[in-house]
Design a protein that fits this description.
The structure is a homotrimer. Chain A is α/β, with parallel strands linked by helices and about 160 residues long. Helix content of chain A is about 30%, strand content about 25%. Chains in contact: A-B, A-C, B-C.
Chain lengths: ~160, ~160, ~160
């Protein structure tokens, strides 16, 4: 766990808050693996919920499946449902919602190297393709293919790489 | 007050943060009724302002008129002006603004069983009809009739029930 | 500094949180001027970062160039990059992002008497003209001329004064 985290942190390259978040998240996630760990790690997970999710407003459950190289900028008002699946080297920002569109609905699956702009909404049973960029302020309710930029409300493809 | 609150809480059905918010809000609102109550309840109201409005980012004044069964999910960046009137069983989410469109302008009146999606804006002297749904990321600046879904920026009706 | 601040605060006219923010910001900015000041003011700047930027969610670096009469309403989820230049008597609100559109990209220059609505995005190497209004929920990625109102995603001019 420690070696992985170290290489992840290195990639964050000076984003203090992102580093702090990632440490807290991976640490809290480590104690969410099984019943015994959850009992031992209860104070750590409580601290994570209270301080990171409630106070800092980075509302990501520690059981969320998130790949390596996850990068959070600012993060206030960032809400990610616990059923969202996130690939490697994904970048997310502030005031963003990633989750289900209806009660008990499915959540997005985010590919690798995806970048999501500030003030975005990504909801429903959709997939976001590798290397794609979701522009700031987008409302994404449909699948996004690989290697493109989407923007607008509702979001449409504006460019292919 | 206690009996009402108990049935309200029951309806929240496991939304821990929503329950915590509702207790804090109803409790603080109880001490905002008249001058004497406001003197007695000063520390409670101060705690509510500081902890719930400023730290958790659920910025709803305790004098706001909110019907029973009010349900807040996540709530970071949720700002509701104190002159907004909210009906029963209304659901609100994070990164949402409900208030006046211009300085000293009037605020929305929200009907019963209305559901408001994340990252929405609902502003001006408008009425939101019963049972309607405002989709995530909508910017609502005109009246919304009963039993419909609105979406987009500016929000338009996309479906009737 | 004190006299300037006093006249600024007077203009805020009862916006308690805005006043608290402005005091904290100007005070922390005062200690960011040079190396010696930064050493003396380290605890103050740390408090500002932790309490105002992280906890209250008003994420504005104390080195940002902001003119007199700056007015923040609510401010949760308000992120302004440190390279943004803001004129006099500018009003900003909650859930708003002002910054660069791409990594290492340039940031907006905001004129005087500009008012920016809630849940807005203003990004890229653009200029916002004096006296203009950016409506709530706008996504601004192009220059905005003087004396107009822009709205929508992407934002377009809807009215000239």
């Amino acid at each position: 766990m420690i070696t992985n985290l170290r290489s992840e942190i290195k990639a964050l390259n000076g984003n203090t808050k992102g580093i702090l978040f990632l440490y807290s998240f991976r640490f809290s996630a480590y104690f969410s693996r099984n019943k015994i760990m959850r009992i031992i790690g209860f104070p750590i997970r409580l601290f994570y919920t209270f301080f990171v999710q409630w106070m800092m407003g980075i509302d990501i459950y520690d059981t969320t499946q998130i790949g390596r190289g996850f990068n959070v900028y600012h993060g206030q008002g960032l809400i990610i449902s616990s059923s969202v699946i996130i690939g490697e080297n994904v970048i997310v920002r502030q005031n963003t919602t990633i989750g289900n569109a209806n009660k008990n609905g499915k959540c997005p699956v985010i590919g690798n190297n995806v970048e999501i702009g500030a003030n975005s909404v990504v909801i429903g049973d959709i997939a976001i393709g590798d290397n794609s960029i979701i522009a700031a302020g987008s409302v994404v309710i449909k699948d996004v293919p690989k290697n493109c930029i989407v923007a607008g409300n509702p979001a449409k493809i504006v460019k292919y790489f």
